[in-house]
Design brief:
alpha/beta, about 35% helix, six-stranded mixed beta sheet, 2 domains, Rossmann fold, single chain, 11 helices
């Protein structure tokens, strides 16, 4: 694998389970050193794709290379060179923090001469100082994920796969976890992360959106916001939110209407805030405020999934 070669490259990747197509004709590449998010709802094909890339699951058809190795012919070579963290805490709960790290270091054949220093380094990276002798079972969800990340990178892999790594973890722990991921990426590690959290996808250099096994779009978060909505987006607020929502949903020129806290996001094919205010006034809704807004990644994702 050359220095400028993609860390991951797949062409027409497909996986069938009997009659069900879990992943359909997917093609993309991931640059070395990139944080790449694979975004989609539950059951969209994210985990199936990551298992094929990790050499755990053979594709039905299509080709792929990970770190220069063929995903069909060389899955064991891939497994030796990557780190993998699943969506479920898969470490040994009856072992301590230190024992888990030492166990995985042994699996990945970390030399004994550097083992102690490596464990100390990972404990510090994960902020687990003082918890080295605590059983993994007694750690909170956020601390467990930090330990799992440490075990996944104990052998210093150049490529890290994260399969919905923060599912069930509180927002503060999720933010801290992603800070750690970007610190890793700054050292040159390539990160491929599946997620259904829109705010996590914002952390990535590029985002691939998958739905029903089909890759629907791939771009940077900024490009998604700038180029993937068909129309102008407005935030609408009124004293009667549900009535306003119903009125907007009846309009054929308003393609997407969604609740966001105390506001309604309305995507209008053409027109400005004055035209939208007139629509509401005609429906008998008085005193509503309408302002144009920049779309979030969530706005784009919902619009694409509806289309």
């Amino acid at each position: 694998m050359t220095a400028d070669a993609p860390a991951i490259e797949v062409h027409h990747l497909t996986k069938r389970f009997g009659e069900r197509v879990a992943v359909s004709d997917v093609s993309f590449s991931v640059r070395s050193g990139e944080v790449f998010a694979f975004l989609g709802p539950n059951g969209s094909g994210k985990s199936t794709t990551i298992r094929m890339l990790c050499g755990i699951l053979a594709p039905t058809s299509g080709t792929g290379q990970v770190l220069g190795y063929d995903i069909v012919r060389e899955p064991e070579r891939i497994k030796q060179r990557i780190g993998y963290m699943s969506q479920r805490f898969s470490l040994y709960e009856d072992l301590t923090v230190r024992e888990n790290l030492e166990f995985y270091a042994g699996i990945y054949e970390v030399p004994r001469g550097v083992l102690g220093a490596r464990v100390t380094e990972l404990v510090a990276m994960a902020g687990l100082q003082g918890r080295e002798d605590q059983l993994a079972a007694h750690l909170s969800g956020g601390w467990k994920q930090r330990l799992a990340l440490g075990c996944a990178i104990v052998h210093r892999p150049p490529l890290l796969f994260l399969d919905e790594p923060t599912a069930g973890v509180d927002p503060v722990s999720r933010r801290e976890f992603w800070t750690m991921i970007h610190e890793l990426a700054a050292t040159g590690v390539t990160v491929f992360a599946t997620t259904h959290y829109l705010d996590e996808a914002e952390h990535a250099a590029r985002v691939a959106m998958i739905h029903d096994g089909i890759l629907t779009a791939l771009a940077t978060p900024a490009d998604f916001k700038a180029n993937f909505l068909r129309g102008r987006l407005f935030a609408v607020r009124s004293a009667d939110t549900l009535r306003t929502l119903a009125a907007l949903q009846q309009r054929p020129d308003i393609s997407d209407v969604s609740l966001y806290g105390d506001a309604i996001h309305a995507l209008m094919a053409a027109g400005d805030e004055h035209a939208l205010a007139e629509v509401l006034a005609a429906a008998g809704i008085e005193g509503a405020t309408v302002e144009p807004i920049l779309p979030s990644l969530e706005d784009v994702f919902i619009s694409l999934m509806k289309r």
